[in-house]
Amino acid sequence: MRAHRNELQVEVTSAEPLNKKQEQSLRSALASFANAGQELNISFGVKPSLIGGMVVTIDDKYVDLSMASKIKKMEALLEKSI
To answer: Signal sequence span per UniProt (predicted)?
Structure first.
């Protein structure tokens, strides 16, 4: 349905609420993912369990930049090396 309305759905979940400057910077960066004439529909959420950083979902793409995922990766590497 959103594709018919020419919208790009973006969900941003951060460990802490973003301030207005951070939201604006993120909006500017995410604009490069939109096609010409496509409207960005960005929703912001907070999930403290991320510890730090954020998770960004753009339509069907998922980018995990959270500290929680980095810690899990480090734990897996440490367990693998033992």
So the answer is: none
- Characterise 6 by phi-psi region: left (phi > 0), alpha (psi -120 to 50), beta (else): left
DSSP string, 30-55: HGGGSPTTPEEEEEEEE-GGG-SSEE
Determine the straight-line distance between the first and last CA of the chain, rounded to whole angstroms.
49
What is the pTM for the complete model shown?
A: 0.85
- Look at residue 30 and tell me if it is in a domain: yes
For residue 64, give the nearest of 17, 12, 27, 24 by alpha carbon: 12
* Residue 22: closest CA among 50, 54, 64: 54
Range of the domain at 15: 7-81
Q: Do the domain assignments include residue 1?
A: no
Segment 22-59, tens digit of pLDDT: 999 999 999 998 998 899 999 999 999 999 999 999 98
